Protein kinase domain-containing protein
Amino acid sequence: MRHLKKMKNGFSLSQIKFLASQLVLALECLHENKFVHRDLKPENVLIDDEGYIRLADFGLAKDLTEGAGKGSCGTLEYMAPEIINSAKGHNFEVDWWTLGVLMYELFYGKTPFIGESRQDIIENTTNKEPEFPELPKEGASKNFKNFKSLVSKLLKKDPEKRLGHSKRNQGAKKVKCHAFFKSINWEQILERSYEAPYKYRKDC
């Protein structure tokens, strides 16, 4: 296996959709078992020799049966605003935020709230909206519009307005119903019957 980080060279939207759909299922499983990961990033996503992902590093995961998460934890560029403002506490929604950051990074090659200093990143994360410049590889396609819509909804500052928020822990169902995933057969993803839309290189 290798880290997703080593594959970062600008993914197509079809590749991002394939990867993100697996992450949605992984987070759904975690959340159904009352755990929140809190550190989703390329370094913690492993790719096997068939191109399928394994979510790794549960060192910051928290069992939410004990109550909402407290404190600031994770990797700053991927932290949700409610983790940065740690006094408010946080819930499952922080994982949907990090999914949005990761999808943005895979497409643009950088995180959406990057800054020159730690304080810049904090300021951008809590106050700035993500920008979505059109790239030649996708242009103004419908798929790009759906990608922009999904990531924008995952990156809502208010966790109660963020796609994936659910008082009954049904957030993954809402994410799976977004138009970006319309072409995905979730059972086939679970069964690993899709062929990965990228080539695996053992020398990576």
Summary: The radius of gyration is 16 Å.
